[in-house]
Every structure is written in C-alpha cells, then in structure tokens.
Amino acid sequence: MDLRAGDSWGMLACLCTVLWHLPAVPALNRTGDPGPGPSIQKTYDLTRYLEHQLRSLAGTYLNYLGPPFNEPDFNPPRLGAETLPRATVNLEVWRSLNDKLRLTQNYEAYSHLLCYLRGLNRQAATAELRRSLAHFCTSLQGLLGSIAGVMAALGYPLPQPLPGTEPAWAPGPAHSDFLQKMDDFWLLKELQTWLWRSAKDFNRLKKKMQPPAASVTLHLEAHGF
Amino acid sequence: MPSYRLQTIRPMAFSVALHPAFLLVVLSLKTSRSEVLGEPFQLTPEILTVSTESKLQQVNLQWTVPNLTHQELKMAFQIEISRINTSNIVWVENYSTTVKWNQLLHWNWKSEIPLECVTHFIRIRAMVDDAKYLPQNSWSNWSSWKEVSVQVSVAPNTLLIFPDNKLLEEGSNVTICLLYGQYLYNVSCMLQKEPIHGEQLDSHVSLIKLNNVVFHSVSGTNIHCKAMNATKMIFGTVLFVSKVLEEPKNFSCETQDFKTLKCSWEPGVDTALVWSQQDSQSYTLYESFSGRRELCDHRNSHNWQITDDSQETYNFTLTTENNLRKRSVNLIFNLTHRVHQKAPHDVTLENIDARKANMTWKVLSRGNNYILLCQIELQHEREVIHEHNVSVHMSASYLFSDLEPDTKYKARVRCADANHFWKWSDWAQKEFCTPEAAPSQALDVWRQVRSENGSYVVTLFWKPLLKSQANGKIVSYNIVVENQDRLSESEHYSVPAPALGTQLSLDPCSYKIHITANNSVGVSPESVMVLSNDSGHEEVHEKRIKGTKDGFHISWEPTSGDALGYVVDWCVHSRDQHCDLQWKNLGPNTTSTNITSGAFKPGVRYNFRIFEKSMQQKAQLLEKQTGYTQELAPLENPEVTINNFTSNSFILSWPSYDSDFQSAFIEGYHVYLKSKEMQCHPKGKRMTLPDYWVLCEYEIKDPEQKAFTVENLRPESHYEFLVTPYTSAGQGPNETFTKVMTPDENSNMLLKIILPMTLCVLLIIIACYWKSQWVKEKCYPDIPNPYKSSILSLIKSKKNAHLIMNVKDCIPDVLEVINKVEGPKTQCIVSGNPHNEDVSMKPPSSVPTEDGSSGSVPFFFFENFTYDQSAFDSGSHGLIPGPLKDTPCQLGLLTPPEKLLNVLEKDYMKSLAESPTEETSLIYVSQLASPMGGDKDSLATNPPMPGHCSEYKMQMAVPGRLPSLALSENNSLTSEILLGQGEQ
C-alpha cells in the first residue's frame, strides 16, 4: 500500500478518534448477559479440537483399511457415499448464507456424520479402534450439542429430521466391501472438511457477534485504510 | 453392482409332460426284453436345470434318468464341462450313485474362474453299473450341451472385478478376472502395494492368477486397479484371506466335584474377519454316549454339567468350525480317572521348636476306600529343602525335623487320587518360623598387635557367625582378657553387634583372651588367644612369592611338631591405612594353602604372614611372604637430582620407592643418556637416533643402587637423561628426558682466580680510599712541604740552606686589607664541604685563625702564604688582622673570578711593595710594571688582564737553580685555585 504523509496523519487522527471513542463502546462496558459470544467461541474451540483428534483417528483407521486408502496421495473420485453431507460449497454460496442457514447446515451435517460414524464403530475389528471411534463420537456429540446451544441462544429452531431421511448406512448384502472401504474413506474426509468449514463458520459468526469491534473496524476503514 | 442372470436351457414343456409316460412304456418293454435277453441297455440322462452360485463360483446340475424302469439301479455318470466353447473341455468327472426311479440327481462343481467372466458348457452321460445286470460296456449318448453363464453388464469406462468379497483360506489359490467396459484400456492392478499382472482372455476379459495368498489384515486384502485413460477412477475388490483354522490342542476334561466336567483346550489362532465375512471360529462339544451337544461359551474351555451320576465313561468330540473349514478332536475317558483333587484344607503347624515342627491337614474324601496321595514340601527362601509323599485318608500330619533355629520356612502340601493319578491339587501352604537357640560355633578370631608408647595395642577381629551357627540374632560379643602374669586380674568387655572387632590397650604382659558371641538365648563356645610378651615384635625373613591371576600359593616350613594349627593373614588394601585384615585358619598338618580373593588386584603388593598356633593358643610368626598376583611395569619414574655437576661429568641420584607402592618388584634401573655425537661408556648400549643424536643406555641391575655417575662428557654440550626403573613386566613410563648442559671447562679455573683477585682489588680500593688522604699527603700533597721534599734533601746535601725561602725572612712591602668583615660573619658558606675542610686542615701553622679552624682559607691563600706570612706576623702596619680567610669567601660569592684574581694581584703587589727586601739571594722584582699607586678604587675598576697573571708568575722569585719541576708545580696549583673559584 502506498502511504503518503497525509495518510500517516490520517491514521494518527483515526487512532486518536478510536481511543476517544473506546469508553463509549458498549461492548467494552457491558457487564450483564454475555450473549452467544462465549458459546460460539467454545464451539469454535471444539471444532479445532475435533480436527486434531480426527487427524489421529483417521491415520489409525486408514491403516486398518489398508493400501491404497492409507496412501498419502490417494484421492479417489467421490462415487459412492452420496448420502454423506457434502461440505464443499461454492464460495459465493457460502458467503450468501445467513447465520441461521449456516448453523442449520452444520447441525444437519454433524447429525448425519455422527450416525455414520457410529456405524463405522460397530464394524471396527479391533478394540483399540472401537475405543478411539467411540471417543470421537462422544466428542462429536458434544459439538452437536454446542451448535444446538448456539442456535438456541440466537433464537433459531433446531431442524427437525424429516421422516424417512434418517440415514441408514448399513451395507447391503450386495455391497462391495471395497466400495464400503471407499465410503469409510469419504466419511472421514467429509468429516475433516466439515470441521474445517465449521471452524470458518464459527470464526465468522464469532466476529459477527462482536458488534463493537466491528464498528471500530468500520470507523478505521472510513479513514482510508 | 453387477446383476446376475442365470441362463439355463430348459426342455420344452410338452416333452416334459409327454416324455415320462411315453418313455415309461417304451423302456419297460425294452427292459423286460433286455432282462430276458440279458443284453445291455442304455439310459441317457437328461439335464433338468443348471444353476449357478456366483459367490461360491459353483455350478449346480440337476438331472434325471428318464427311462429308468427299475426301482433302484446303480449307475455311473460322466459329466463334462467346457469353457468358452464346447470343444475346450476343462473338467471331466465320473459320478456313481444308485438311482431310484424318478429320482432327481444333483451334482455341483466349483469353477476356479468366476462364472461372471467366461461362459461354461456342461453335458452328461450315463452307464449302468449294477452287478445284478449285465455290465454295460458303453456310455449312453451325451446329453446336449447346456450353457452356464452369469450375465453382467459392464458400463462404459468401468471395470468389474470378480470375485468380489471373496473369502478364502491362507495358502490357497484364486483367479481374479477383470471385465473391461467400453473405452477402457491399459489397466494396471495392485495387490495391496504390489503390482499384479494377468493374462488377457479376450478384448474385455483378463485373468489374474494369485497363488498361495497370504493373510494381510482382518479387514481383507485390497486389489485395486486403475485404467490409464481414467486415472482418477479406482476399481477394486477385497479378498478376505482367512488364517487356516487350527485343530484344538491339549484337549482334556476333569472334575473336582463330580458335578461339573471342566474341559479345556488351546484354541489356536482366531480366524475372524471384519464386515461379517467371517466370525471367530465356533467350538462345539459333543458327548456321544449321552448324545448331548453344547456350543462352548469360551473359545478355550467349557463346563459340562454331569447330569447322569451313573455315567462313568465319556466320549467327547470337540469341533471347531469357521466358514471355510471344520476340525475335530476326540477324547474318551473314565470320570474317576479325571479327578483333580481340591487343595487340602485346615493346614496347621503345631509344637514348633528350634529344630522341629509338626504339620497337620485335611482332605476332601469320597468314601472310606478313597485313598489320596499327598506331597509335602518344606521350603526355605524359595528353595525346596525337604520333600515327602504320604498316603492320606481323611486327615494327616507330618513332622519336620532337623530344622534350623531362627529360620523362616514355608510348609506346603498337595494331594491327588492315589489309585488313578491324574493331577496334583493346588498347593495348600503355611509359613512358620523356628525360635532361636544358643550359637553353636565358636568365633573365628584373630588379632593384630602393635606397640605404642610402651603398651600393646591389640586389635581383635572376628568373623560373623553363619546363620546356621548363630542360631539367632547375635546381640553382642563378650571379651575376657586374663593377665597371665597376674592371674587375679581379668577384664571384661562387651562389644555390641554388628561390630566385628575391637581394640584393646594392654600393658606389656602375657594375656589370655576369651571371646564369645551372645544371642537372646545363650552364649557360643569360646575362642581363646594367648598373647605373649613378644607378640608383635617377631622379626623374620621376608620371602618373595609369585602369585597367579586367582591368588597366591603359600607354603611354609613348620618349626615344631605340636602346632595346633596355622594362621595366614594379609591386608586386602596394603596401600591404605585401613588395611582390612584378612586371615585364614588352617589345620595342624597343613604346610601350604591357596589364598584366593576377588579383591586381589594386579600391580598391588600383598604381604602375607604365617603364624603357628601352639597348643597354648599362642601364635608365633613363622614367615613373611610378599608378592603380586600380576606384576606390572612401574607407573612412575623416580625424581632424579643432579650432583657434582662438572664440565665432563655429573652424578644422577634418586630416592627409593616405598615397597608397598611398587607395582612389581623393582629389578633395577635403566639410565638413558642422549646427546649429539656422543661416545657411550663401554658398559652402555649405544643407539643412533636421527639428526646425529646418540642414545646410551646403561643398566643398573642392583635395585638398591640409587646413583649413577655420567662421565666422559664434553664441556658446553647438551645432554638429556632419563632414569626409569624396570620390573619383570617392563620398565617405567617413557617420560620426557631431562635436559642439562655441561659448563665451560675453564669457567671453574677462572672462577678460582678471578674471585680472589677481585676481592683483593676491592680490599685495596677500600684501604686506599680509607687512607687516601694519607696517601695523598704522602704522594702528592696539595701544598708540597719543602722540608719534606726530596729537593730539600738534595739542598741539604749541598748545604745551601737558602735555597728554600723562609717566610720569616720576607718583609712584605704592603699589607692591605681588601675587605673587612665582621668576625662572627666570616662563616664561610662552603665550610660544610668536608673535602675543603680536609684541604684546609693543613694550613701553615703560622696562619692566625680566630677560632682555630682554618675554614675555607686555602682557597685564597694557600699559594701565597709563603709571601704573606710576614705580613701577618708583623702588626706594625696597623692593619686589622681580621680573619683573612673570610675575605676570599665573600669574594668567592660576590665577585667573579676575574675580580678575585684582581684582588689577589693587588694584595701581592702591596705586599711586595711594602715588605723590605733584604734577602739578596732572592731576586725580587716589582710585580707591576706600571705605577698603580695606593688607590684602592683604581684597583677595583681596572682589573688586570690574565696576561698580568702570567707576567706575575714569570716575575716570581725563583731561585736561580730551581728546577723547572717546582715552577710547573706552582703553576698548576694556581690553575687549580682558579678552577675552584670558577666552580664556586
């Protein structure tokens, strides 16, 4: 950015203005109800924790599936697993989402993913893997509860599961076990992508739920930053 | 997913309906005729259905024999299977069975190639093979070929892999087939991480044969393929390779209570696979006599309830089974022979004393005739020290004897059926501890005696009693010292345990020392030692011995025949102050022993003393022996000092080593001398080194010799030497040589001459200095005394007394006081100069001085006193006879030398002018050529030129025959005065 002397004076004036107005910022003086901010922060922290936990779990589980699923460059097309909620979304679409929709999508996705994950746990062969999966399911259940808490705090209703849409991801008799492994791979991958997306979602929501900070930012922008 | 379509060619409906009736009639006619005629007849089988089981890759064939009229007929069938086309026959199998009328026959075949991949064809023919009839020597006609295929449709750009989810056993073979969809080519496949290659069967089918497949994971073995033109797409299948089911091992059953049979076995590996492909193998127990079958609740054991008390014999079959295999083991036994007795109960130990204890126990009995065999064990510190078997009916007891006092024991017992031994019961055990008893063994004691301040210092040592000897915890050691010389005197000491020695200070007498050990129960037998007056003072010869890696062999000569025994003692740490005395007691007939110890170290000298114990318990030192387990080369060289250092020799000397610190016996010393171009002594060994250096090696074979003279050295030369001891293991370390330089040959001589000479000269100088004045007076006085001069003697000899002018004879012309100075103020400023005082010490005796000291007079007057003497002597001129000496002093300070000279000149002129000159022998000439008058001022304002001075001197009264030497003396003196003035 090309800053001129005038800009520097502008910045200084702006900073002074900000400092002058700081005592008047309601957020800094607020002492009553903390609002949804802390619960959003907690939810954000939980997504980051689950990301970390999933990294370890996925490593173990993909080794259990064997090659090529545990190979680092394995990137198959998403053929099966159509019922899995897709985390990837167009950036413009994502930006256009409102808070309610954003939270609803998160809630629905994790509801489905949790269900699939429990199915995965039932099939796991080793006790250690079952333990890890059960621990992760518990954490994911916690995330779901946190999202529900945020939605309640913001006054959004929880999405009701439509009858017949309850995911039933038990492999049929004719289901190829190779495709089953592929579905497991995609389940873990989607889960990871959802956690990334959720982290962004909650980060955005967190910033949005801090109006005083936002007004200060706008004020700074008005001065030509 | 592929859809399966079973295609079988079925007979036409009408023929199905018509055929039996028609054929039945015809055949019955034919058969009856054949039977009658005894001719062979042909029955052509008819295939009813051909079905497939795709997952099992199995073809099921159903057929009938339509023309069969007999109720039963033994027949043989031949079935042919061809692949791809009918001419490519891949399987021929004969199948014999008894065929009943109207029976539907079944046969199946498993294809090694998945049925989805290739089409198969099947046909059958038959032959009567019944002994009741004439043998048919030819097969019937073949049935028509039936096509067997599983139709699958492959979408473009996709690949189907068969079989899918195949379950197979480790080590088996499998053929994988790939069905290519349209537009798909160049497919490469991997088995887990290894590439696999197949053969192309046709344009859209290829086969991959895998032999001897191995188990990878419970989640199966992945086969995945990629096509070159669709690299993102991945196709695959999972082979579920199961481990081979193992037969259960060590299958056995037993009962403890005749109510339950506990059967157990080793199950072998778990063959379970995930995704419900295969569960863990099941175990089933079947008893043939009762006909009961039970699925086992554990994979390695099962409890079988005995429901029928009367059943004695059991025949068990244990079967394990998984999806692929079944294995069985059988076991038949009599129940009474498989009784695993319960552990004995109520085990108690009674009447325990120091040496014995009684154990009792009870067993579970099954009747009066039931005898048990029981095994009893006694353990001490986990080691079985006693074992015994006894027969038991209901209860029993056993007495343990020969126990050790104060010892922990564990007694245990187990039992088994005595009649039909099957297994020991579990152990029933009890721990107990025997009480203490008095120590049973006398202490092994020894002593060390040394004199100190006229008394004995006796250090007593004893070894701790073994646990078996102590019989309890030793509380203290009692020492009684009896004075043998004064029997009434005895002293008692008590040393608390765990001390293993004590020190006593005794008067020089004979003593008898009694030592006992006490525990809580009693006292040990006593150990006795006798100390005589000379204990500790014995002097014997020390002998050298050679040790081995393990220790030392010590032998000695007994001195008396009635020795009670011998004691060998030594110090473990001979170099330390605390030597850790060790000793070994030996029997009376022993004359040698081996001393071994893990503490012996190489290069450490050990000193052994051998004592003979007399019958009176008195120990007499027999021998001293010293040696090393291993001799080592010396670790350090001695510190060498150089003595008698001369230009061509010096003596090297060094101190002796402490013998206890020698790493081996020193056998001698090597002296090395190194220099350039040196000649070795004939006794030395010469070695030439680089750079013209020569090394001489001298060997001193006497270790007591501690000096060596190095001779025949060159003066002012560099030498280097090293003295190192040598032992049997080698010589000392190769340290740096010490450098020396021999001095100059003459330096000593010079020293001898120069030093006394210097001293003499110094003495002379001091003496001269001290007597300098005297010498000066003697040799060259400042004012030559004419009377003392040799000239005088010369004159006298010539009897010419007038040659030397007497001052009294001179009549001064004029005497004028130039400057009058007050008497008290005449102190000369330079009077402090001792030299000047010395000079003035010799004024002419006639010079009047106020205070008797001449002060600085000579500066001004010593040249012309001769002339002024008369003036001072005569007071007729009225001149103030002030201290003349003062005047020049002031002058010296206030006037320059020219003025001073002027003043002097004036004085002389006056004196010359006023004194009456009567001496004829002297020629007096007026000193001033020009008339000066008596004007004092003109004198001051007209200083004479230096030329006047010379003129004046020229005009001095000089005897006609005065030698020029005298003149020159005056001249020089004058010059001195001037110089002195100038200096002031």
From TrEMBL, chain A:
Cell compartment(s), UniProt: Secreted
Signal peptide: 1-27
Described purpose of this protein according to its UniProt entry: In complex with CRLF1, forms a heterodimeric neurotropic cytokine that plays a crucial role during neuronal development. Also stimulates B-cells. Binds to and activates the ILST/gp130 receptor.
GO MF annotation terms: ciliary neurotrophic factor receptor binding; cytokine activity
Classification of source organism: Eukaryota, Metazoa, Chordata, Craniata, Vertebrata
SUPFAM superfamilies per record: 4-helical cytokines (SSF47266)
Pfam families: PRF
UniProt superkingdom: Eukaryota
PANTHER family, A to Z: CARDIOTROPHIN-LIKE CYTOKINE FACTOR 1 (PTHR21353:SF7), PTHR21353
Assembly description: Forms a heteromeric complex with cardiotrophin-like cytokine CRLF1/CLF-1; the CRLF1-CLCF1 complex is a ligand for the ciliary neurotrophic factor receptor/CNTFR. The CRLF1-CLCF1 heterodimer binds SORL1 (via N-terminal ectodomain); within this complex, the interaction is mediated predominantly by the CRLF1 moiety. The tripartite signaling complex formed by CRLF1, CLCF1 and CNTFR also binds SORL1.
Cellular component aspect of the GO annotation: CNTFR-CLCF1 complex; CRLF-CLCF1 complex; extracellular space
Protein name: Cardiotrophin-like cytokine factor 1
TrEMBL record, chain B:
Topology class, membrane: Single-pass type I membrane protein
GO cellular component entries: plasma membrane
Annotated Gene3D superfamilies: Immunoglobulins
Keywords for this protein: Disulfide bond, Glycoprotein, Membrane, Receptor, Repeat, Signal, Transmembrane, Transmembrane helix
Keyword Transmembrane helix assigned: yes
Single annotated GO MF: cytokine receptor activity
Xref: SMART domains: FN3 (SM00060)
InterPro entries for the chain: FN3_dom, FN3_sf, Hematopoietin_rcpt_Gp130_CS, Ig-like_fold, LIF-R-like_Ig-like, LIFR_D2, Type1_Cytokine_Rcpt_Type2
Swiss-Prot/TrEMBL GO biological process terms: oncostatin-M-mediated signaling pathway
Domain Fibronectin type-III stretches: 343-437, 536-632, 634-745
Pfam families hit by this protein: fn3, LIF-R_Ig-like, LIFR_D2, LIFR_D4
Segments traversing the membrane: 749-770
Compartmental location: Membrane
Self-association state and partner proteins as the record states: Heterodimer composed of OSMR and IL6ST (type II OSM receptor). Heterodimer with IL31RA to form the IL31 receptor.
PANTHER family: INTERLEUKIN-27 RECEPTOR SUBUNIT ALPHA
Similarity comment: family membership: Belongs to the type I cytokine receptor family. Type 2 subfamily.
Name of the protein described by the UniProt record: Oncostatin-M-specific receptor subunit beta
UniProt organism field: Cricetulus griseus (Chinese hamster)
Taxon lineage: Eukaryota, Metazoa, Chordata, Craniata, Vertebrata
